[in-house]
Amino acid sequence: MKKHLFKLAIIALLAIIHMSFTTKTSNQEHTKKEVPAEYQNKENPYKNDASLKMIGLRNFNRHCVSCHGKKGKGDGVMAKNMKTLPGDLSAKYMEEYTDGELYYLSFVGIADRPDFMKLIPEEEAKWAVVNYVRALQDQ
């Protein structure tokens, strides 16, 4: 009996250790990401420019939906294949980020994804995506 309980305890311990290395972080848990000072107060030259709405939507649909999903919730079809779950761009915590920080996180500072600086080379289009992400927070 004791031998059986010992085996069960070992199996349970191994399962817990395995889960700690393989479980992905939930979108509900969020720690604000570090952003270099030069981006923290970077001005959005296209803030509130409604003429860029379609450019932001088109680029978001082309480059972001597969991981973040149509509504930015982090539930795109590729999300389950990623080491780090994509963030919920519509979440309240996204309001903590300045536009410059969103720019950095979207185009410069996150590994484990395509090089969006090259995929969306136009500055206007990058800021259009930032504006579109802001609009997701209002939905």
UniProtKB/TrEMBL annotation:
InterPro entries: Cyt_c-like_dom (IPR009056), Cyt_c-like_dom_sf (IPR036909). It holds the Pfam family Cytochrom_C. Residues 1-25 form the signal peptide. Residues 59-136 form the Cytochrome c domain. The keyword Hydrolase does not apply. Keywords: Heme, Iron, Metal-binding, Signal. GO terms for molecular function: electron transfer activity; heme binding; metal ion binding. PANTHER family: LIPOPROTEIN-RELATED (PTHR40394), QUINOL:CYTOCHROME C OXIDOREDUCTASE MEMBRANE PROTEIN (PTHR40394:SF2). This is Cytochrome c. It comes from Carboxylicivirga sediminis. The lineage of its organism: Bacteria, Pseudomonadati, Bacteroidota, Bacteroidia, Marinilabiliales.
